[in-house]
Design goal:
By secondary structure, the chain is mostly beta strands. The chain is built from two helices and eight strands; from the N terminus they run ααββββββββ. The protein is elongated, with a radius of gyration of 21 Å.
């Protein structure tokens, strides 16, 4: 009997979590990891695969605030606006967002957010003399606005998969990032 007690307790906890209403299953804090691809328009910033991380705090059932970042470790060769060849890389995007979420069922919800692109930056090596091999390093940074929309599919009580899109923009550029997140909630 003593060896069956932990199994019975675990079965009771799992069945209780499965029948808990959707509102009770919302976590107060979510930590996520993401993979995606940043496609840029505007000035010649890089198009790169990105990885990311973030945290969202939900002080109310439907409203939350979050911080996230995207990091593009790759490189892309492009021509600058002045016509010089350049290698762009090391994209960083940091954003602070206010979210609204809506539950469709116990395991499916959506979250939409808007806020600030606190800092966007990339490094570039501009080749000024293609035959002589002269180059100069450039780091450019900017800020702007951010929009975030994800579909949240709960797998187990505190783990969800979140496919979605991030759009970060300033006056002279736009980053469109399809992403997929894995989020753990507490």
């Amino acid at each position: 009997m003593a060896t069956r007690l932990p199994s019975l307790l675990l079965a009771g906890v799992l069945s209780g979590a499965a029948t808990t209403p959707a509102a009770a299953q919302h976590d107060v804090v979510e930590i996520n990891a993401a993979v995606g691809y940043a496609t840029a328009e505007g000035l010649p910033p890089p198009d790169l695969p990105v990885v990311g991380a973030g945290v969202t705090v939900w002080p109310a059932e439907r409203w939350g605030v979050g911080w996230s970042m995207s990091y593009g470790p790759g490189e892309e060769d492009r021509v600058t606006s002045s016509g010089q060849p350049a290698t762009f890389g090391t994209l960083m995007l940091h954003r602070a967002v206010v979210y609204y979420r809506h539950a469709f069922s116990e395991s499916l919800s959506a979250a939409v957010g808007g806020g600030a692109l606190v800092r966007g930056s990339y490094d570039a090596v501009v080749f000024t003399g293609s035959t002589s091999g002269h180059s100069r390093s450039v780091e450019e940074s900017w800020s702007g606005f951010s929009i975030d929309a994800v579909l949240r599919a709960r797998i187990v009580p505190h783990l969800s998969i979140q496919p979605g899109v991030l759009i970060d923009f300033a006056l002279d550029r736009l980053y469109y990032q399809p992403v997929i997140r894995v989020a753990v909630g507490f």
